[in-house]
Amino acid sequence: MASIFSKIISGEIPSYKIAETDEFLAFLDINPNAKGHTLCIPKKEVNKIFELDEKTYLDLMSFSRKVALAIEKAIPCKRVGISVIGLEVPHVHVHLIPLNSMEDARFVNKESMTPEEFQNTVKAIKSYL
Ligand code: 5GP
């Protein structure tokens, strides 16, 4: 069965898209730790990050870096943190999280955002890509 992220790639499930290439997609996390929390995924459906072939792994990191630099310009924060977990969705994804305190890295306190706030966040990040 296709992962929820493959359904986002195909457009079956909507998402707030930040960036897309032939191989990768970046979109806002629907239940963000902080405003601007973004997921970067390979379109190839692979469960665990270290199962990716080396080229795809390195290219995913390079894609994530570009997105992270744009997030850092668009969203007021001390820095953008990176995290890979995957316990909920078995399709490789890199979390990029604007951090102001350690709480933002803990996946406990979630930020509630309206559709308009999601849209404005997309616009702000994209303007720096
Ligand atoms: P993990 O697998 O790394 O533990 O977490 C999966 C992440 O994917 C969570 O932060 C969760 O909010 C996010 N997520 C789960 N389902 C969806 C979805 O349908 N759309 C979006 N944009 N994010 C999702």
From TrEMBL:
InterPro entries: Histidine_triad_HIT, HIT-like, HIT-like_sf
Pfam family, one: HIT
Domain HIT: 4-107
Active site per database record: 93
One of the record's GO molecular function terms: catalytic activity
Span(s) of short sequence motif Histidine triad motif: 91-95
PROSITE patterns linked to this entry: HIT_2
PANTHER family tied to this protein: ADENOSINE 5'-MONOPHOSPHORAMIDASE HNT1, HIT FAMILY PROTEIN 1
Annotated protein name in UniProt: Histidine triad (HIT) family protein
